[in-house]
Design brief:
Elements (H helix, E strand, L loop, with lengths): L3 H8 L12 H11 L4 H14 L3 H5 L3 H8 L6 H16 L8 H5 L6 H10 L10 H12 L10 H10 L4 H17 L18 H4 L19 H14 L6 H5 L5 H14 L3 E2 L5 E2 L3
Antiparallel strand pairs: 1-2
Amino acid sequence: MDGLLEWYARNRRDLPWRAAGTSPWGVLVSEVMLAQTPVSRVVPVWADWMVRWPTPGTLAADSPGTVIRAWGRLGYPRRALRLHEAATLIERDHAGDVPTTYAELISLPGIGDYTAAAVLAFAYRRRAVVLDTNVRRVLARYARGEMLAGPSVSAAERRLADSLLPVDPPTAAIWSVAVMELGALVCTAAAPQCDVCPVASDCSWRALGKPAHSGPPRRAQRFTGTDRQVRGLLLGVLREAPGPVVKAELDHAWPVPDQRERALDSLLADGLVQIGPDDHYQLPD
């Protein structure tokens, strides 16, 4: 993929977690926030978090409810709870330092393969196979001539990514974020800009005439009217309330009783909501 690193040097976005001096904790927080969430929504929340909780220890010392409230409308609020749990373990078991090995990172709550590899690459400049949606799409097109990657990472896909990754660890780390940026800005899912792509001349998908996706159809995730929307509305009531609320206040958030109760039960089961004194509902303390 000749020309990729030069392209990245000229076109990389100026994102705060890429700034020199960003701590491994700052990188970890950014990766957790960015999962299934647009960059534009993450930037202001990440900046506020790093001022408020610059270390794992400062986050661990605060209450889960405060953390969920600060998570705001980023979505998938269980990530906030898992991040608080991870911070607690980092402070307790790792002297407040984000772990430096894959095994230690993957053992933390809410940290999967991608996040562990991303922290190793972007925080510690290690050679790690980083496979997010953008990277997988770029490699599927460039090396396999397929419009889209499969629904899940395969062993063959991981071997391919490893074979393309530079041997030198710092270079590999930059290469990984460069491929990710290429997928986000140029080799997008719906409208790839092959005319400005730095690796277009070697792209298998382009050479084959850009064949259409031949696998199962990709369905857009619906949000309106789903349990996920109802969970967000219920959490919104609790985030904005100055204290615990009675059940009637939650009932006003959604008009369909069965769905509302199902969503509330799931929030309770996930630990995102708890029942306090006098059967009032509140964020976890």
